[in-house]
């Protein structure tokens, strides 16, 4: 028999099992009610003999649950879709451990997005973002029904992150929660918005095949996840976004002596500012982040201003403005760190609100990090250590070719 013919024979056997369950008015949710039926045993034996490896009673029970959820009357076309999902689970999903976490303050019309971490292996760390399913939301409500701070924020969740880790290679992989943090850090670097990831949960079976609708709690949801600063991702951004994500991925995480933990520390510090509560704390951390990125060891405030202006300014006027702002930001940071003093931030000689200063500094810091990541991957710079990259920025004050290079990179980091 052909594979298709065998599938059709199994469908006939399975239909008889479903009819028996319905005629006897058995509760299909309880395996003890149906596993003693002759048709149940016949279905398992036929699968083992004709369709590959054995399936467990629990897996066959899952197939029954999915069928009855769709329809108590057996329909070939409905079963065909269920059967295909089940086969995919056995062939692919079963080889992985699957985790999910809710995404907060995220708005998208992409539907589903797939990507991988920095690895050539297709067996490890497969990642995707998709719409959260009603049963997953139900699971969250049930988990937090006695804790109102988490319960009230669940309704705002539209998407979740799925991480699938190969069982065969799990010893060399990071934990799901660590991978989720890396993804969050990279997303925050690509676009503005207070995107946040919730708790971590392990699916009992697959990410797409989970008839028992069961998860294991790994880490809890935090309270206060919602923010009005929404992270928006449009399907028109899809290609550019994934391209930028790939560039970041080649530098974080990374095992390369040229960069050591340079990019990792910078990106993590930048990402962590989203989770800080106070505006002053956020702004101070962003200035420190920019210092670490551009200042170099023991660099002066003058070097910090100059490097910021040369990397970020696209013409003379912009560079003068950025240098002036960076002087003001550096002064603000010094007041916070050294004397706990709230100093003014000046733009064009006038004081501006700290909230406005925060948005300006966040944009500058994000652009600077992305520009250096892209710069480090340019053919003429890819062999340089990070301090040598900074030296190129210092030298650009005398080199118009380097200035043009920095301007050209601007287009590559825009989503």
How are the SSEs placed, and which strands pair?
Blueprint lengths: L2 H21 L14 H13 L6 H14 L5 H16 L4 E9 L1 E3 L3 E5 L9 E6 L2 H10 L4 H4 L7 E8 L9 H15 L5 E2 L2 E4 L11 E5 L11 E3 L4 H12 L12 H11 L6 H16 L6 H12 L3 H23 L6 E3 L2 E3 L1 H22 L10 H10 L4 H13 L3
Parallel strand pairs: 2-9
Antiparallel strand pairs: 1-5, 1-6, 1-7, 3-4, 4-5, 7-8, 10-11
What can be said about this structure in brief?
By secondary structure, the chain is α+β, with helices and mostly antiparallel strands. The chain has helices at 3-23, 38-50, 57-70, 76-91, 134-143, 148-151, 176-190, 238-249, 262-272, 279-294, 301-312, 316-338, 354-375, 386-395, 400-412, and strands at 96-104, 106-108, 112-116, 126-131, 159-166, 196-197, 200-203, 215-219, 231-233, 345-347, 350-352. Strands 1, 3, 4, 5, 6, 7 and 8 form a seven-stranded antiparallel β-sheet that branches.
Features:
two-stranded parallel sheet, 3 domains, 415 residues, alpha+beta, seven-stranded antiparallel beta sheet, 15 helices
What does this structure look like?
- The longest helix is centred in the C-terminal third of the chain and has 23 residues, at 316-338.
- The chain folds into three domains: 3-91; 94-233, no CATH class; 250-412, no CATH class.
- The chain is elongated and about 85 Å long.
- It contains 15 helices and eleven strands.
- With 415 residues, it is α+β, with helices and mostly antiparallel strands.
- The strands form three sheets. Strands 1, 3, 4, 5, 6, 7 and 8 form a seven-stranded antiparallel sheet that branches. The chain has a two-stranded parallel ribbon with strand order 2-9.
- It has helices spanning 3-23, 38-50, 57-70, 76-91, 134-143, 148-151, 176-190, 238-249, 262-272, 279-294, 301-312, 316-338, 354-375, 386-395, 400-412; strands spanning 96-104, 106-108, 112-116, 126-131, 159-166, 196-197, 200-203, 215-219, 231-233, 345-347, 350-352.
- Helix 11 runs antiparallel to helix 12 (316-338) and helix 13 packs across helix 15.
């Amino acid at each position: 028999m052909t594979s298709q013919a065998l599938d059709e024979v199994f469908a006939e056997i399975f239909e008889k099992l479903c009819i028996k369950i319905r005629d006897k008015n058995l509760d299909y949710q309880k395996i003890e009610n149906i596993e003693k039926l002759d048709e149940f045993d016949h279905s398992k034996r036929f699968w083992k003999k004709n369709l590959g490896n054995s399936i467990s009673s629990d897996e066959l029970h899952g197939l029954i649950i999915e069928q009855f959820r769709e329809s108590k009357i057996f329909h070939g076309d409905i079963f065909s879709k269920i059967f295909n999902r089940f086969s995919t689970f056995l062939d692919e999903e079963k080889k992985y451990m699957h985790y999910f976490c809710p995404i907060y303050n995220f708005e998208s019309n992409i539907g589903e997005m797939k990507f991988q971490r920095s690895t050539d292996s297709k067996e490890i760390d497969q990642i995707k973002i998709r719409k959260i399913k009603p049963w997953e939301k139900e699971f969250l409500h049930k988990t937090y029904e006695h804790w109102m701070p988490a319960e009230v924020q669940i309704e705002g969740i539209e998407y979740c992150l799925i991480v699938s880790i190969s069982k065969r290679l799990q010893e060399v992989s990071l934990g799901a929660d660590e991978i989720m943090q890396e993804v969050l850090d990279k997303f925050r670097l690509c676009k503005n918005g207070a995107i946040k990831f919730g708790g971590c949960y392990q699916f009992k079976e697959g990410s797409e095949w989970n008839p028992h609708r069961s998860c294991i709690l790994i880490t809890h949801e935090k309270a206060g996840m919602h923010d009005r600063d929404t992270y928006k991702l449009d399907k028109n951004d899809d290609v550019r976004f994934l391209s930028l994500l790939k560039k970041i991925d080649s530098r974080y995480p990374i095992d390369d002596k040229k960069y050591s933990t340079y990019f990792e520390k910078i990106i993590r510090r930048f990402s962590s500012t989203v989770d800080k509560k106070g505006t002053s704390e956020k702004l101070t951390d962003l200035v420190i982040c920019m210092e670490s990125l551009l200042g170099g060891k023991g660099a002066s405030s003058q070097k910090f201003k100059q490097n910021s202006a040369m990397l970020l300014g696209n013409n003379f006027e912009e560079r003068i403005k950025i240098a002036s702002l960076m002087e003001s930001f550096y002064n603000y940071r010094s007041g916070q760190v050294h004397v706990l003093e709230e100093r003014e931030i000046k733009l064009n000689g006038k004081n501006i609100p700290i909230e406005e200063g925060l948005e300006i500094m966040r944009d500058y810091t994000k652009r600077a990090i992305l520009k250096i990541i892209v710069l480090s991957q340019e053919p003429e710079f890819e062999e340089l250590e990070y301090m040598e990259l900074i030296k190129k920025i210092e030298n650009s004050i005398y080199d118009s070719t380097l200035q043009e290079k920095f301007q050209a990179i601007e287009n590559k980091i825009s989503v």
